[in-house]
Amino acid sequence: MKEFDLIVLGGGISGANAAYVAASKSKNLKKRFSVALISNENIIYSRSALPNFIAHEINSLRSIAVFPVSHLKQVGVKFYGLCEILQVDFNAKSVKIKNLRNGEKSEFSFKSLIIATGSLPKLPPVKGADLRGTYTIKWFDKAKDLSGRAKPGMKALVIGAGLIGMETASALRKLGLHVTVVEALSHPLPGILEPPLSRFVQTKAESMGVKIAVQSLLERIEGRRKVKSVILNGERIPFDFVIFCTGVKPNTALFEGSDLEMAEYGAVKTNSQMRTNLENVYAVGDCAEKIDYVTKRPVYRPLGSIAARTAEIAGMNALGAEITFEGSIRHQYDYVFGVHINSMGLSSSEASSLGLNTETLLIKIGRNDAFAQETLKVPRDSKICVIVDKKTDRIVGWQSVGLSKPVSYYNIFIDDLIRRGGTIGDLQEIGLDFSN
User: Fold this and answer.
1) DSSP track, 17-50
2) Homologous superfamily (CATH) for 339-435
């Protein structure tokens, strides 16, 4: 049985980054440290770019690759692509895998382990969700199939109005499909944008021909072998495709029944060094809990930027470092339906779930001569809000939407304010004012 100093489970952004950091750092230190990366795919790519592939804006898997396997091999990582993880024995410190090309099975032992198994689509329990014509936007082969089958004039139903749902709706609309987006909550982009900003995006989407139905329920999908229609709010409506963009869940079923400590919803629990409750076992990315920077409470944030950072920390710590993760501040940016969307920190809904009582304030210019530089002014075609802790006046979140790209100054400035506990007074000092 071949032994590695470190085995990384999962070939997404977090797994690749953890393996690369550990191997490259050990190489620089001239330290013998063997690293293996096990992945069920043979290329590491950006899943957030899949809607662009659907829209025919990119045409190959390699064009969305974010971490060439050749880079991993150059620093000494042994890459096992197209391999399924069959079993992890934490007591014996071993991993069993199967090669998906030829069915050959192998077993490796490890001294340290980083779990980066990512996430899986979280599907609602809807009858007919397995019919041909139903999709999730998680895997390249599914996106490729949808891209090939979608033709102008066909009808598509997108379930879920988060960023991926809205991006998918935009992509299908660009192909000439009739698109309806269904959201169970009261406004699109819940947890990302506050209602006034969300309505700005909704208006733009509807002006481009996309129907958005909020507070709506998909009851079932109908058809013999393929999608023919759906029952939506008690009404039968014909559709050619149903695309589920209803979020993700941790991919951790492999560890059920083990001694690995997990949250009730399935994410692996970690401490500030990304260590689990088991010795020399770490967890990063979409399969793991993280700490929120503001409240210091555990949260589930399946975002690539956070996955990459936690992976870097785990990779270094597996090598013997003692790096601490201070907590994550959510950063999400997108450009969809001609609108630039920027959201960072806590939304009012997430803040409430973490025990904070917040207030959302819309931002406006306090005085026209507030900025010495034109680029630092608030664009007139934008809506911006700040989420503030009522008890302390501390800024915990910031959001903007607009037809002009928000200046990067604000991203850096607000991130710094959140980290150092800044208040609305700090914003007033630079010329911004507020309205409820």
Assistant:
1) HHHHHHHHHHHHTT----EEEE-SSSS-B-GGGH
2) FAD/NAD-linked reductase, C-terminal dimerisation domain (3.30.390.30)
